[in-house]
Each structure stands twice: as C-alpha cells, then as structure tokens.
Amino acid sequence: MKSLKIVLLVLLIQTNIFSQQSPKREMRAAWISTVDNIDWPSKPGLSDKEMKAEMIAILDNLRSYNLNTVVFQVRPTADAYYKSTKEPASHWITGTQGVAPGFDPLQLMIDEAGKRGMNVHVWLNPYRVQKDTTKEVLSKNHLFFKKPELFLTYGKSRYFNPGYKETRDFVSSVVGEIVRNYDVQAIHMDDYFYPYKIAGQEFPDDKAFAKEPRQFKDKDDWRRDNVDLIIKQIRDTIIANKPEVEFGISPFGVWRNIAKDSDGSKTVAGATNYDDLYANILKWQKENWIDYVTPQLYWHIGFDRANFEVLAKWWAAHKFGANVYIGHGDYKISSTAKEPEWRSADQIVKQIEMIRTMPQIDGSMHFTANNFLKKGDTLRKPLMDKEYKFIALTPEANRITRIKALPPTNAVASKKGGSEILTWKAGLNDKKFVIYRFPKGKITDFSNAENIYYVTTATKLEVPNPNFENYIYAISALSQTQTESTPIPFTTK
Fold this sequence. Notes:
The chain is of the alpha/beta class. It folds into two domains: 365 residues, TIM Barrel, CATH 3.20.20.80; 84 residues, Immunoglobulins (Immunoglobulin-like), CATH 2.60.40. It contains 14 helices and 19 strands. Strand 10, helix 12 and strand 11 form a beta-alpha-beta unit. Helix 2 packs parallel to helix 4 and helix 6 packs parallel to helix 8. The longest helix has 23 residues. The two termini are 45 Å apart.
C-alpha cells in the first residue's frame, strides 16, 4: 500500500507539472513587417541611432513575452534590408531606394536577437517590386530599368513575371546571397506568390505563356508549375549553400475548399492558395521542398466560412513531415472589433490552448510584432499568466541536415556583489546556450520548460539577486539546427 501511495503521489506531481508548464519545444514567433513601415522602422528617414533603438525596443518587448523567433522581412519589394550586390537598399528605410543606412539592419537583427536567445528567419517576397506604381521609388540601378521585359503591372502594383526562367534564376540568386552571407535559421516566404485576383482584371502573362509554355496547354496549371519551379529551385539553392538552413512558407489559410477538391477543407473561402494564388502548398510538403508551413489562420474559432478549429485540424492532418506552425491574427484584437470574438485577447489564448491539444502542430507565429507592444497588458497578461509563462526552445526541423552541438566547457558560477556571474566557453558548433536553474541539489528534469532560466548567444550571464543558497545552474548548447547538447552543471567558484 505504501508503494501504491508513492506511485500515486508521483503521478499527481507529474500531472500538476504538465498542466502548468509550457512545452519545452514550441515555435513562438512574431513577424516583423517592413513594407509600409508596419513594424520597423516606424517611418523612413530616421537616424541610425533612432532605428537601432527601435529595433532593440521591439526585440526587448518580444523577449519579455518569451517569444523565441523573429521573422524579419528583408526583401519587401525587390529591395534589401541587408548588404546586397543584386538589389538596392529599400526606400522603406531611408526614404530613398538605393541609399542604405550606416549599418546592416539584418546583421544587427541577428546579433541583437541572438543576445536575447531568439532565432531569425528572413522573410522575402519573391515577385513584388512596387506596391504602388504611381509613386516613383525605384532607383536608377534597379533591375527593372536593365531588363524591363521581366516585369509586368497588375492593378497598381508591379511584379516580376513568374512565367520566365530568368525570374526564377534571379530570385534564387538573391536567396543564395543571403544564405551564404548571414547566419540565419530559415528563409521564409508568405502568401504573395501570384497576387490576389482583382475583379475584372486578368493577370497579364499571355506573352510569357506563349514564349515559355513548356508542356502546358492550361494556363492555370502552367502558373502553378511556375511557382512549383521557383520553390524547388530555392530549396536546391539553400541546400547547395547551407543545408542546415530551413525553408518555410506562410500561405493563405485555405489550400482548397472541399467543394473544389475532396481533400480540401470544410470551408467556403473566397480565395484559395491552389485556385487563386497558384500555390500548391501540399505538393511542396509532400516533395520535401519546404521544412515548415505556417498557414495564416486569421479567423476566429467558430467563424462560419473559415473556422479556425476546422482549419487547424486540417493543416495538422496534412503536414506530410513538415513542421506546422499556426499563424495567428493578433492584429485583429480591438475593443471595437466588428466581430465580438476579437474584442479581447481571449481568442488568441483559446487558439493556442486548442492547437496544443494537437500533437502534429509545433507552435505559433503572430502577425505582427507591434501588436505585442501596442496591446500592452491586454495581450501580455493572458499570455504570460499561462500560455507563455515559461521559455520554450524552437523545434528541430525534420528535413534539414542536423548539426550536433558539443557541451560548453568551463562553466563556472561566481558571486559578485548582489549578483551571480555565470561564465562558460563554447564548444564545437555551439550557437546558443540554454541556462537551466534548479532548486539546490535537484538537477533532475531538463525536459521541463519551467527549469529554463535564459537562452543567449553570449558566454556570460549576470543573474541579479539570485538567492545564492536556493538555486544551482546548468547549461547546454544549441547548434544552428536547434539540436541540444548534453547539459552540464556549473561549478561554484
């Protein structure tokens, strides 16, 4: 009977821990949009000092929510938020395309996010060149003026023509340059492949279809193949340069409605990836061309035309080996929202709770970063009370070349004033370090997210007011592929 009581006690403790803690591995990302200055910088033409301060404020805020990844838009309109030999610096930064700031925004993002234990996914738009052709923003050295035949205008916007091989080659070369020159975790693309359709206007690609039809007679199939080809080529480019870098897509939330395809979702969406954007996401997953998919499920639970719950379950059932991260529409939260479901942050909390019951789903991405700052306690309190109370590490991708991290060495804890100073040395392939904190004498459970104290790229950490007598620390390393080393304890100096 005594042993039975012990077993029951253990079960109760384990159940209690499970019910309170966040998963140890879970994607928690925020998109940082640069087009239209949605997130960063707040407007064109700020000083370098102002832009750096804004970026750090964004990252500090996201870190305070225990987010672990930023998805940074570095090519919003065929321009660059990084040092590029192929495209001009973005006009969204300085106000003039081709005029770069006095620092490298992408490198600063990588450095500052890393200090805070956050990964960086670089977000590129493959085809969009100008949002509004009535505004003269293109620099004279833009590819548009060298090869105008590669571009077309649809509505008020200008795009690369997806029908040409030269377009695919150029965009892939842009990706290759980024992957070679920057230490990023992933290349990321959103839902803007072929643009959303404009009523009464046909996308003007007849000339490209006539010139490079390949074997196709049906233009819709040809358009889908155009996008298939660029996705495959980008995947091959990444692998040829750094096979450990992930490739992710954030598509519109509906692949196809069930009325069009028996494998589609029980939705009645007005637009779909397959039929309107010519993006056959499921094929890319099945063919191992992408490592993760983040469907933009910007609808509430119970929405009649596109129910969040229905779609989350559909994407979970159609992952085909890719990681699945759900895209949440935090931007919809407003006390005056037309739909009552969005008048508080409860909808986002319920969505996170719901997807955590689906083991096929690996986490969340939130649109966009400035919502975490602007919503304040409206969003902070419900998330930090439970859902994001503890730090989580990002999931490993299933399809990339894994890199093994070796444990750090010389892990020493020493007292200095009112703080404890933790120092260590990096081992081979160590990119980030996970600091664990345990009650003294109880280094037992490295799988419990509650025991993660901090994650950083630094090799030194000051722990203020640490209650020296009550805690002990341990450390592990993460490689580029988020593969964790064996943890080791700190020795006390």
